[in-house]
Amino acid sequence: MNPLLKEIRHNPLLWLLAFVPGVLAAARLKPEAHTALFVLSVLAIVPLAALLSQATESVAAKTGDAAGGLLNATLGNLTELVIALAALRAGEYMLVKASIAGAIVTNTLFMLGASFLLGGLKHHVQEFNRAGARLQAGLLLLATIALLMPSAIAEADSASGPAVAQKLSLGLAVLLIVGYGLGLLFSLKTHREVFASAEHAEAGEAPWPIGLALATLAGVTVLVALVSEVFVESVQKAADAFGMTPAFVGFIVVALVGAAAEMAAAFSGARKNRLDLSVGIALGSASQIALFVAPVLVLLSYVIGPAPMDLHFWPGAVVMVFIATLTAAFITSGGRSAWFVGVLLLLVYAIFAMTLYLLPPERYAAGPERPPATADGSKWHP
Amino acid sequence: MNPLLKEIRHNPLLWLLAFVPGVLAAARLKPEAHTALFVLSVLAIVPLAALLSQATESVAAKTGDAAGGLLNATLGNLTELVIALAALRAGEYMLVKASIAGAIVTNTLFMLGASFLLGGLKHHVQEFNRAGARLQAGLLLLATIALLMPSAIAEADSASGPAVAQKLSLGLAVLLIVGYGLGLLFSLKTHREVFASAEHAEAGEAPWPIGLALATLAGVTVLVALVSEVFVESVQKAADAFGMTPAFVGFIVVALVGAAAEMAAAFSGARKNRLDLSVGIALGSASQIALFVAPVLVLLSYVIGPAPMDLHFWPGAVVMVFIATLTAAFITSGGRSAWFVGVLLLLVYAIFAMTLYLLPPERYAAGPERPPATADGSKWHP
Amino acid sequence: MNPLLKEIRHNPLLWLLAFVPGVLAAARLKPEAHTALFVLSVLAIVPLAALLSQATESVAAKTGDAAGGLLNATLGNLTELVIALAALRAGEYMLVKASIAGAIVTNTLFMLGASFLLGGLKHHVQEFNRAGARLQAGLLLLATIALLMPSAIAEADSASGPAVAQKLSLGLAVLLIVGYGLGLLFSLKTHREVFASAEHAEAGEAPWPIGLALATLAGVTVLVALVSEVFVESVQKAADAFGMTPAFVGFIVVALVGAAAEMAAAFSGARKNRLDLSVGIALGSASQIALFVAPVLVLLSYVIGPAPMDLHFWPGAVVMVFIATLTAAFITSGGRSAWFVGVLLLLVYAIFAMTLYLLPPERYAAGPERPPATADGSKWHP
User: In chain B, which residues have their Cβ closer than 8 Å to the Cβ of C334?
Assistant: First the structure.
């Protein structure tokens, strides 16, 4: 266990691990202290996410190139997936969808923008591999178009709308996973040389021994799952206490918490003038959530959720995802960056955050009208 | 008639010509066998379209550069135009509009995507003339913006909406034809050197003698017109029999049938690493339908239709055309292609096709509410 | 006063200054002759705007690089600002908003398009600095996204909608001004070498003495303010007389009048093959109105307007601004131009103008429903 302890000693972020037993104990003793539980669970998830991503990378580094890339690509957003699964099991479909859309928007605008800004404050002009950014932007565009369709259909008051949206979502989920898989095949196998520099940059620190990495992966996933349950249960009540709208919590707070570990890596890459790494993490993470996490949640909802989940999002969320994708595609098309490029992305993010913060709750609720089938599912809107 | 017979002997696609007398005879003898007539008319239109496009090219090759390019550009979508005229005369305005929007979407997504995929499976990376793709994308963008306007105006329930949409459509039709004409002047005359490679690639097989080409052009056009009438009459009933929505038929089936011949040419160009040819056919065909065929149909509707036709499309169709244009502009802006680029375009097309297939019919009908003025015109929605 | 008189003698546009006393006298003597007053005020504003922009440039040239650039950037749209202030004081919020959106659309489509066309008719292919165009397009995109949000929120019938849109508009106004300021810092200070050629091109004629320039600036601003008041009072009645819709007047007529002087400079730059100058004026002016003039008007409305103004625009205006921005970003991304590029932009502008000209007035009125708080404010919609 030496490398793990060494890692913890050197990385102050991991000292937050002390909050993991804290939040689990508090959830037992004071289940009604929602605001405190919310804060504690956030503080506990952040270091767990950091450990998780490091363990994933170590396993990936051991298993060889293609398989490793695949592993990295599929487990990279494990934190988001586990949080979303906790919300799915609780029937909180509004929270699941808000966190999916929020993660896409937060990664493409905030993570990318802050990387450009932090990198640009240190380096006058930075360059990055356009091909990688274009591929991710193309995948995001595909996912955005897929999200548009069920929303467009279900917005009608027609009686058959929701049933059709459900069937369509199932088909789209399969289509997106196929697109994601072929995209991996393309970037990791048939045309890997085109995306070479991003690849090379990703290899960094010395990896852990495989046994430790696997054990950490398993153990931390369980811990994230336990803490996520507390988080999902407390987040709504805590939001009320802080005067935040549910839309703001789902879009901004959950997304920032879930992506904390990746952000640390993206920002440090930008400071070291390895912008390929930052762009790869930010856009790659966004496209993974859109083309892999979201469709997997739709499929899993048939097994573990109280009712099937569709891909019918609140129209405002679809618009924001669409704008974020367009903006990222436009910004990264040049392959060069300076500090103001980051400012532009962050200002777009600030516009969205401000709108969500001020959004009258009934507006947001008016979005995906169809309540989940079980009584449990209506918790999100009391 | 030697070259024509030789062509038929060597091109198995043309053996389908046997279905032409078949379908005309069947339409006389069994006018109520809609499904059989639909299948027969599809099988008959495909080889006729192939002959028509070859005859057009031969005439174009004879008449010299500028005039030939003009002829090729204006007669290239004769099949689509003749089918649409048959639907126009029958007052099937919904079918006309669906087939226009469907042809744009099918050409920009399916034809271009399949070309990229088929070419990319054989060649690692392919390059094409960006200038040509940009020009066509710009023209398509112009047409898409024009389609947005009447739909936006007519969606209101205001009493004057439809009348205004009609007046506006007339003005827009003239504007689009002017834009198309100036675009030809630009690409064939004043700046032809910029688009040179596309031009050069277009010249291919040895052309037919001019007399044969003209006779084929005239004769085949008449045959296409006759078969189209059977097709338009049977397509809706056949769709019901196959369980397909009217939207799916208009968008996907009619568009694929109408573009069959061009697709053969585009795919064969891609396999031969002459991607300029494929991109030119796919995007050129789409922009021709948007900026020439559609406006001409609006103008002709004043003469031959039961009532004037406007450019007010079902909002879903406008969204799909807009997304297809944006996607094509984004994808072709790099001037390079690999197999996955084709997959991306095809997946977007699959998303549209899936949505249209599942669309509840009343949703689609709810689009362009205004029924044509005559009783005849309401056939499309019984 | 020699340079001023010399300028007037050599510039036939300035002979129109004779209309300034004319319109002010006429407004006193015949306040009910709206059509005549409208025509006279247009004829008087055009030369005043030309003088204003020349005086600004002269002051800017004197005060050194960074400060001069700042001055030029903040006073460049003084005419538009003064006209809008006159409308704001009169409570004509619909006119203010229409003229803001119209100025953005007119500058990005008409001014840029006509520059490309006029330049392209003289020069075969023209090049310009892509970096400058990309920066302005990025700023415009930011402003467009900001305009989308309050409109999306306020369109709901929820009781709290307007209040929220007002709060949000205030926050967005601050955000946009911050973005504009940082953009100036970026292009004039930290990365000025990237935008160098545009900068250099801007210096042109010999500047006036600083005293004359400052006196002209002050005097002409007062005259513009006086004439603007006549213009704002007469424009609506005159529009009725000419059979023009209020939307057409606000979007097209006011925007063309306000930008007349900049257009003269942009067109002359394009003819002299200094396209950087033209692109800088057209897009820079548009982004300045979107990120500086509009937010400043929102802030000033708390002080001088009869009621606070929000950024809730008529949805059609938001769509047009969005399309104009997308089109300009697409068109300028190549950094090269020929005559047909200008035609494309002008055709998009013609589509908008035609739509606005035919728009049933009640449609437009149905946009920003919320009437200003005072009785005065309802003048625009009798």
Answer: 134
Q: Is B336 helix (H, G, I), strand (E, B) or coil?
A: strand
CB C252 within 8 A of CB C242: no
Cβ–Cβ below 8 Å for B158 and C360: yes
Give the pLDDT confidence of C38-67 residue by residue, as tens digits.
989 988 988 888 888 788 778 777 765 556
ipTM score for this prediction: 0.87
Looking at this protein, which amino acid is placed at residue B195?
F
> From the CA atom positions of chain B, what is the Rg in Å?
20
Neighbours of A38 (CB within 10 A): 24
In angstroms, what CA-CA distances link A6 with A9, A10, C202? 5, 6, 60
Residues of chain C contacting residue B152, judged by C-beta atoms under 8 Å apart: 316, 319, 355
For the stretch A128-159, pLDDT in tens is: 988 888 999 999 999 999 999 988 777 655 66
What residues of chain B lie within 8 A of the CB of C366, using their CB? Answer: 156, 158
Nearest to C351 among B135, B149, B183 (CB): B149
Q: What is the 3-state secondary structure (H, E, C) of chain A?
A: CHHHHHHHHHCHHHHHHHHHHHHHHHHHHCCCCHHHHHHHHHHHHHHHHHHHHHHHHHHHHHCCHHHHHHHHHHHCCHHHHHHHHHHHHCCCHHHHHHHHHHHHHHHHHHHHHHHHHHHHHHCCCEECCHHHHHHHHHHHHHHHHHHHHHHHHHCCCCCCHHHHHHHHHHHHHHHHHHHHHHHHHHHHHHCHHHHHHHHHHHCCCCCCCHHHHHHHHHHHHHHHHHHHHHHHHHHHHHHHHHCCCHHHHHHHHHHHHHCHHHHHHHHHHHHCCCHHHHHHHHHHHHHHHHHHHHHHHHHHHHHHCCCCCCCCCCHHHHHHHHHHHHHHHHHHCCCEECHHHHHHHHHHHHHHHHHHHHCCHHHHHCCCCCCCCCHHHHHHCC
